[in-house]
Predict the 3D structure of the following.
Amino acid sequence: MAFRIEDFKKTARKSSTSGAPATLYPHQMRDKKALAKVELAIRTFDGLVGRKRGELDAQTMVDFFGDHRIARGVVACLGAYYRYETQRFIQVTGAEGAARLATAELRKPSDIRAHTYQEVNARYHGFLTTKNRAECYTALAEPFGVTAYEWDQLMHLDAEQNQVLSRIGPVPSAKDIVALYNFHSLDTPLRRAQEIFVAGLDLSSAEASDVRAFTESLGVRAHIGNEGTTVSLADLDAASLLPRHAGRLSRCLMQIAQTYGHESLTGHADVTLASKKMRLSLGPETFQTLLGKYRRADETTLRQRMAQGDALHKALLKLRVQGDAAGWRIKRNPEPTVTAQGALLPDLRLTSPQGSEVLLSLGEAPGGDWMRPVLSVSVTDEVDAAAIVAQAREMIGNAWEEETEGQSVPADVLALCDRAAAQGMVRASDAQRTLHLLDESPLIEWIRRAGDTRVRYIPGVGLCSEAMVAAIAGSDLGDALAA
C-alpha cells in the first residue's frame, strides 16, 4: 500500500548543478508531538468501531494534523488495522433468524430485496406507499422470526453508508502507525523509481549471483560493480509498452538490504512524480525507517529461499486446483508488513475464503508481533503444502465456525454433491445457476462444511468426483490451472 500521489506530503529542492534532478524529501513524523496526535487519532478511530461509515468526520482528522495530506496518510495507515465491512445477517437478526432466512435461500441483502419486490408486485401492484410499508415488511418478516425493522435493515445492509467500522486484531500503538506512515512516505516514491543505486555492500561471487537471479525473477536487472560493493537496479521492462508491476525495484532493494545488512548502505533512487524527475537520497536513516531493527539472521541464501518459495507457491496452487485449498488466495512476494519493530518481507501470503490472512516466512521464525499470524517454514525440509494450509487454518482459528454455528448446508448443495458423484462433474456455471449465486464463494464454503469425500470443488471448473479430479490433474487443463 503506497500513498496516493495527492496524499503524499513532500518537499523538493532544486539542485545547484545544471540539469540535475531536484532532491526529494518525503515528509517524516519524528517528534513527540506527532506521536501524541496519532495517539489521539487512534482513540477517535477506535471509538467509532461498530458505527457506520457516515459517522466519521474527515475534518476531525485534518484538525488533528493541520494538513489534509498527512491526515489522509494516517487514515490510510489505520486501514491496516481497521476496515469498513457489511454486517452479516446474524449480527442483525441473531443466529436463529439468520438460520431461518438461510433455509429459504435468503442469505444476502440482494436476496431480501428480490423477495420483497416479488411481494410488492404481487400484493401492492408494484408500488409500496409509506402507509403500507410497515404492513408489508411485517408480513414478510414474521415467518422468519424477525421484525419489520430488521427486515428493512437487511434490505439495505450492503449500502456503503451502512457499512460499519471493525478492528482487525488489537488496538494499534501510536508507534506502529508512525512507523507505517514513515515507511509508506519513503516507499511511495521508491515504488515509482526507474533506477536505484546502492553502495556499501560486500557481496561474494555466490551472493552476487543470488542477487541477479532473485531480481531477474521479479523483472529487475541488477548490475553489480566494484567487486560486489555496489548494485544498480533497473526495470527490465522499462522500454516495454506493457504495464509495469509497481514496486518491484523497491521490493528488490529492501530484500537485498535486509538479507545482507543495511547499516552502511548509501545511494539514491531516480523517481518520477507527476511527470517530474526527482532524486531520493538513500542513507542509514532511510534504511532504518524502511526496515527497522529486524534482519534475517539465518544462514539460508537468497537463492535457496527463492527456489523454495517458487516450489511452495506452485504446490499450493496445485492443492487449490485439486480442491483441498478451494477458496484460498495465494500471493507470492506480498506487501511488506510494517510495525514499530521493523519490516517483515513475507515470501507468501495465504488468504482464507473469509478474508483472514496468514503470512509465510521461509527460514528463521521471526519473533514479535507482525499484525498477522506468521508461519515459519523451514527451507531445508521437504514442504507439505497440505500441512501448511492445515496450520494456516488452525492459526486463523474457529471464528468462522462460531459465526455459522447452527446453519445447515442447504439441501440443494447436498443434491449437487450426489449429482457430481454420479455423473462426474457439475460445471461451476451450472452450480451457481442452480443455487442462484453471483459468485462461487458461498458454494466453496458449503462444500467444505458438507464434508462429502466423494467430490471436490475446483474453482472456475466445477464440482467434480474424485475420478474426474484425478483426470483433470493429469491433463493439460490441470497444468494450466496449476500455472
